[in-house]
Write a sequence for this structure.
């Protein structure tokens, strides 16, 4: 029986970079040979979610949402568009513990293993730490350094904050950083007051967003005081209120995310054909990476 990975993401008609992380991670996994077939599909771009499963030739499909939190898109939009016989109760999740549900699409004869979003997987904690290493250029970063894990936050969906707080707690439990805080754009505690929440002179800020976009490249840098106009860029680090702010940009652009995707499929029973990570080396990538 052949196995396929279908990586699903939001996409955007307005932001050409929105699909870049999904494309990059799909290319990485495709090159690893972990699956017979690797495809991407989007809510707001082509190829669309609506026809995605019809384009897959494999009998067994592992669907992984490239989203940060459980909620409307992962529990309603994606299953509806893929025509899956799925109920969010099948995940039996508390908001951060979705695993997978095996279900059938109504229009094609395939077995679909619908996985929880990458953002709530435990391996994402490692990606946050890697992001801090990447932006500072220090593989041992932590001692005397504060870490802010930043999410969008919304009063409409409590799970949006849960994922951010969950990973902040997990990083804090490692006792690697001097301080760890969960901050948000649209709810308290807010990221625009970032320096009020830390005593450490150096603060690494890692936003839990999937792709580069308006929020990560303009809203957050401007709110933190890194720049008056995010379109003109910002220095890394930037000096703000007596602190050096190391702004890492969208976590979804970190190459280690490909391994989180594979972890999701392995948890659902995929035979990826390799135990080796796809991106085991610390990368040196620009810090301008929603």
């Amino acid at each position: 029986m052949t196995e396929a990975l279908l990586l699903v993401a939001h996409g955007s008609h307005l932001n050409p970079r929105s699909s870049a992380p999904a494309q990059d991670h799909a290319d990485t996994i495709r090159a690893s040979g972990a699956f017979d077939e690797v495809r991407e599909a989007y809510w707001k771009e082509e190829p669309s979610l609506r026809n995605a499963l019809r384009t897959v030739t494999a009998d067994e499909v592992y669907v992984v949402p490239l989203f940060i939190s459980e909620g409307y898109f992962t529990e309603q939009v994606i299953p509806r568009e893929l025509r899956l016989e799925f109920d969010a109760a099948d995940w039996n999740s508390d908001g951060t513990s979705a695993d997978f549900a095996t279900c059938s699409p109504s229009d094609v004869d395939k077995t679909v293993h619908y996985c929880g979003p990458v953002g709530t997987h435990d391996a994402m904690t490692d990606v946050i730490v890697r992001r801090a290493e990447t932006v500072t250029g220090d593989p041992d970063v932590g001692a005397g350094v504060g870490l802010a894990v930043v999410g969008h936050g919304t009063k409409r969906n409590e799970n949006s904050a849960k994922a951010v707080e969950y990973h902040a707690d997990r990083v804090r439990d490692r006792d690697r950083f001097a301080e760890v805080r969960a901050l948000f754009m649209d709810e308290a505690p807010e990221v625009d007051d970032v320096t009020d929440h830390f005593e450490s002179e150096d603060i690494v800020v890692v936003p839990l967003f999937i792709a580069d976009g308006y929020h990560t490249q303009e809203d957050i840098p401007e709110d933190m005081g890194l720049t008056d106009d995010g379109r003109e860029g910002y220095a890394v680090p930037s000096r703000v209120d007596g602190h050096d702010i190391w702004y890492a940009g969208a976590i979804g652009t970190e190459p280690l995310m490909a391994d989180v995707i594979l972890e999701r499929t392995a948890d659902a029973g995929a035979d990826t054909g390799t135990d080796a990570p796809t991106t085991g080396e610390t990368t040196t990538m620009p810090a301008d990476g929603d």
Summary: The first helix runs from residue 20 to 32. The beta strands are 3-9, 37-42, 60-65, 100-103, 111-115, 145-151, 179-184, 202-207, 238-240, 243-247.
